[in-house]
Specification:
The protein has 17 helices and no strands. By secondary structure, the protein is mainly alpha-helical. The radius of gyration is 20 Å and the shape is globular. The longest helix is centred in the N-terminal third of the chain and has 30 residues.
């Protein structure tokens, strides 16, 4: 299950910003669109995806990933075929809606839902391992896309991605997925019987100062301030991170960094995130999620600040490392925190609501930067806003504690 979750994270790439970013300049030139048009189509996709994701989460809790994930793989590959055939802004908007809501939204949600069901005590570490799928995807997919575009053109590149998703995700998901351990006579973490290691120890909870309560419903969760503080971190990460990655080539070109080096920098970010994610997973299992998320916001704010005033091209390595540190924490602590705080029973529905907001926020991310560039010839105005948002979210999430009292239905 851990392997399937990791594979799902890797093959969600066609709908992820780091993959789409490589197509921007070739598609803009061929389709005759402005950067703002491209970003607006991305915004429409996010709004539609945000409407769909709560329903996907609800279906996951009831039907499971064994039913949904193979179908999502088929749909994601079909969406890539659509992207290869577009010739208008309307077609681009429809294509973005499909790849974003399926790849960045539903496939990612399904992969992490599966791991959340199969792990409890080691959930943080397991999410760190699953995050490796996303990190390796960031390392390899942008360069693969760039190679395919240069050799065969952007339309053929989308077709190659479709074949990769169909071949790598659909059949393994059909053959191997089992939704939960209990029907197989197992318990989470691969245990055969309940024991003292079935959850966080009293000492771990005492260190964190956050005892747990029973699983919550979506309605109960939405009434908690902790949910909205966690959601602010997720949305800021999605909005700012997506904006930066979406325009990474253009942003770094301002600082005299070429296209190839800008794409290679994504690999550095992913490498740093790989190491950070595993460490963050261990700390998550000790109950330090909210502190990790606070630190992640500081890393993000520092990265944006450096993009605003980069002294020389060499500082791009520091910029990439800061975003890698932030990304590793978010992929691990930012994924496990929802089930750790609110329980397994309705994790799909709760995370579906959270990811819906995040998808909308991500869709909004590229537009401020595009408007700033098209209207002023500079990214500075949007970057200043992007630097402030993580500081505000970080100040809030540090106070987001686990629910400790039984709540009314």
């Amino acid at each position: 299950m851990l392997g399937i979750g990791t594979l799902g994270m890797y093959l969600s790439a066609p709908g992820q910003s780091f993959s789409v970013a490589v197509f921007i300049d070739p598609m803009l030139g061929d389709l005759g669109l402005r950067r703002t048009d491209y970003s607006f189509a991305y915004l429409i996709a996010g709004l539609v995806g945000g409407v769909l994701l709560p329903g996907i989460g609800w279906l996951l809790d009831r039907l499971g990933a064994r039913v949904l994930l193979p179908g999502l793989g088929l749909l994601l590959g079909t969406a890539c075929i659509w992207m290869s055939s577009i010739d208008s802004l309307l077609g681009l908007s429809i294509g973005f809606t499909m790849i974003r809501s399926i790849g960045q939204g539903a496939v990612t949600l399904s992969a992490t839902w599966l791991v959340g069901e199969w792990f409890q005590r080691r959930r943080g570490l397991a999410m760190g391992v699953v995050g490796l799928g996303g990190a390796v995807s960031v390392m390899t997919i942008p360069m693969l896309n760039n190679f395919l575009i240069e050799e065969f053109g952007w339309r053929s590149a989308w077709k190659h991605l479709a074949v990769m998703v169909w071949g790598g995700l659909v059949l393994p998901a059909l053959l191997l997925i089992r939704d939960r351990p209990e029907p197989l006579g197992l318990l989470p973490d691969g245990r055969w019987q309940d024991d003292e290691g079935s959850g966080p120890t009293e000492n771990e909870l005492e260190v964190a100062g956050e005892p747990t309560i029973d699983d919550l419903t979506v309605g109960q969760t939405l009434r908690l301030s902790s949910f909205w503080k966690l959601l602010a971190v997720l949305c800021v990460t999605s909005m700012v991170g997506t904006g930066l990655i979406f325009h990474q080539v253009s942003l770094l070109a301002v600082h005299d960094i070429g296209r190839t080096n800008a794409l290679l920098l994504l690999g550095l970010q992913a490498s740093v995130a790989t190491v950070t994610g595993v460490l963050a997973g261990l700390l998550t299992d000790m109950g330090y999620e909210r502190y990790l998320l606070t630190v992640s916001m500081l890393f993000l704010a520092a990265g944006v600040g450096l993009m605003l005033g980069m002294p020389s091209p060499g500082w791009a390595l520091v910029y990439g490392s800061l975003l890698g540190l932030q990304g590793g924490i978010i992929r691990t602590a930012g994924t496990a925190v929802w089930i750790n705080y609110y329980g397994r029973t309705n994790q799909g529905a709760i995370r579906g609501v959270a990811m819906a907001a995040a998808v909308v926020a991500a869709a909004c991310g590229p537009l401020p930067l595009a408007v700033s560039w098209d209207w002023t010839g500079s990214y500075s105005s949007a970057l200043i806003i992007f630097a402030v948002l993580p500081i505000v979210a970080g100040a809030g999430v540090v106070t987001a504690r686990r629910p400790v009292q039984p709540l009314p239905s």
